[in-house]
Structures are given as structure tokens and as C-alpha cells.
Design a protein that fits this description.
- One of its GO terms (cellular component) is plasma membrane.
- InterPro entries: AAA+_ATPase, ABC_transporter-like_ATP-bd, ABC_transpr_LolD-like, MacB-like_ATP-bd, P-loop_NTPase.
- It comes from Microbispora oryzae.
- By secondary structure, the chain is α/β, with parallel strands linked by helices.
- It has a single domain, classed as 3-Layer(aba) Sandwich (Rossmann fold).
- It is 34% helix and 26% strand.
- Strands 6-7-8-3-9-10 form a 6-stranded mixed sheet, sandwiched between helices. Strands 2-1-4-5 form a 4-stranded antiparallel sheet, with helices on one face.
- β1 and β2 form a beta hairpin.
- The two termini are 16 Å apart.
- The model has no long low-confidence stretch (mean pLDDT 93).
- Bound molecules: adenosine-5'-triphosphate.
- The site of adenosine-5'-triphosphate (ATP) has 12 residues, from β2 and α1.
């Protein structure tokens, strides 16, 4: 591992009304590593992911990305950072139903003002990598859940992000499709040296990571994999 973490969260506290979601969470993500964030329902995993990605600001504590304090940036700067440096995969419902799978994957590039032809050429390469090239002209509603997740992974990676945030990416899939999505996601991330922050409560899914962080009652604990 390189000396400097890419992403660093230090002593995060975040409450929703009277409910404390994070209560001193600390974690680091190094370039190119796959980290699983595990823990039971309500332990604070998604809140931690949202703070790491600058979607949510902590009440106290600091998140730095490449040495920059996310809280010190404007909302415009944070959303620009999310578009250029981060990719996102959620449990479901993330593809635009009116667009074809190819157009969905090309969308983040179009938002970066890349020409349609070039954006769709790169999108087609990513559909191929995720083994769903045959879905290019189909709309998300014409695909299976597993296929739609592979399209979503292609869309998350098409901008070559430095960090991919995946919140229960296999939560709506059967185990066979879940394994396939995880294999393709981690393979593509390793090929492009993207780090992955993977929120899951399934040990089998966490098995694809290099390292596990366990969240309990809003606090984190690092588990280093033995093998
Ligand atoms: N937007 C919100 N409004 C109110 N309470 C919230 C909100 N988001 C999270 N919480 C509360 O904060 C705590 C942590 O929630 P969080 O979603 O981070 O946990 P989680 O570990 O991701 O859970 P799950 O595995 O069920 O998704 C829970 O008590 C939850 O009810």
C-alpha cells in the first residue's frame, strides 16, 4: 500500500434528530483497495458511506479526500468531485428507465460534455467488460435484476473513478447473480486501480474485499484479513 490514504474519515459523529447514526467512526481507504463495510441493520454503514462520499456532512469529525477536507468545499465543488472522481452503485432503481442501457452508461460522460459518439463508444466498451454488450439497445425494464446491476456497474466505472461506492450492490439479487456482479465489479475496479467501498451485511459478498471494517452502534472496528 502507498503511504497516503486516498480517503480518510476521522472521528465522525452524525445524528438524525435524536438518533445517533455515527458515534466516532474512523476509517481509511487506500488507492486501489476493496474495503467491505459490514455490520447489522441500522449500525450506521450507509451513513458512513454517505459521509465518505460527501453526500452527507458529519456533525463533527473530518473526511478528507486526497488531503482535501470535504466539509470545507462548497456543495458545487463536492458534486463536481462526485461526478469526476467517484462512482456509485446502489441496491436498485438507479438506471433511467427511458434510456437504453447504452445511453445509461454513456450518461455520466455526456454530463461531462463528452460528444455522444465518443461517450457511446466508451459506454459500449464497458458493457462488453461487464458481459452485457447484447443489452446495449434494450431499456432497463427489459433486463433481469442481475443484468441491470451489471449495467449499473458499467455506468459507475465509465468515468474511471478513483473510488467506487457500492451500497448493498447485490442486495436485490439471488446468490448466483450476486457473485457474478461482485466478481465483475471487483475485477473491473482492480483493472482500473479504483478503490471500492462496499457496504454489505453478507459475509460472502465481503469475501471479495481486501479488508473489512465492522460498524457497530456507529463506531468502526478494522478487521485485517488473515490470508
Ligand atoms: N435520513 C434519515 N433520517 C432519520 N434517521 C436516519 C436516516 N438515515 C439513517 N437514519 C438512522 O440512523 C441509523 C443508522 O442508519 P444507516 O442507514 O446508516 O444504517 P445501516 O447500517 O446502513 O442500515 P441498513 O443495513 O439497514 O441499511 C439508524 O438508526 C437509522 O434509522
Amino acid at each position: 500500500m502507498t503511504a497516503a490514504p486516498l480517503l480518510e474519515a476521522d472521528d465522525l459523529h452524525r445524528s438524525f434528530g435524536a438518533t445517533p447514526a455515527l458515534d466516532g467512526a474512523t476509517m481509511r481507504v487506500w488507492p486501489g483497495e476493496v474495503v467491505a463495510v459490514m455490520g447489522s441493520s441500522g449500525s450506521g454503514k450507509s451513513t458512513l458511506l454517505h459521509c465518505l462520499a460527501g453526500i452527507l456532512l458529519p456533525d463533527s469529525g473530518v473526511v478528507t479526500y486526497g488531503g482535501r477536507d470535504l466539509s470545507a468545499m462548497s456543495e458545487t465543488e463536492r458534486s463536481a468531485l462526485r461526478r469526476t472522481d467517484f462512482g456509485f452503485v446502489f441496491q436498485f432503481g438507479q438506471l433511467v428507465p427511458e434510456l437504453t442501457c447504452l445511453e445509461n452508461v454513456a450518461l455520466p460522460l455526456r454530463l461531462e460534455r463528452i460528444r455522444r459518439g465518443e461517450a457511446e463508444r466508451r459506454a459500449a466498451e464497458w458493457l462488453e467488460r461487464l458481459e452485457v454488450a447484447d443489452l446495449a439497445r434494450k431499456r432497463p425494464g427489459e433486463t433481469s435484476g442481475g443484468q441491470a446491476q451489471r449495467v449499473a456497474v458499467a455506468r459507475a466505472l465509465v468515468t474511471r473513478p478513483r473510488v467506487v461506492f457500492a451500497d448493498e450492490p447485490t442486495g436485490a439479487l439471488d446468490s448466483l447473480n450476486g457473485e457474478k456482479v461482485m466478481r465483475l465489479l471487483t475485477q473491473a475496479a482492480r483493472e482500473t486501480a479504483a478503490a471500492v467501498v462496499l457496504v454489505t451485511h453478507e459475509a460472502r459478498v465481503a469475501g471479495y474485499s481486501d479488508r473489512e471494517v465492522v460498524v457497530r452502534d456507529g463506531r468502526t472496528r478494522d478487521l485485517t484479513r488473515a490470508s
